[in-house]
Amino acid sequence: MNAGLPEYTVRTARPEDYDAVIAVVDDWWGRPASRDLTRVFVDHFYGTSLIAEEPGGALAGFLIGFLSPSESSQAYVHFAGVAPHLRRSGLARELYERFFARAREDGRSVVKAITSPVNERSIAFHAALGFEVSEPRPDYDGPSLDRVTFRKRL
Ligand SMILES: CC(C)(COP(=O)(O)OP(=O)(O)OC[C@H]1O[C@@H](n2cnc3c(N)ncnc32)[C@H](O)[C@@H]1OP(=O)(O)O)[C@@H](O)C(=O)NCCC(=O)NCCS
Question: Is 128 a residue whose pLDDT tops 60?
Answer without folding.
Answer: yes
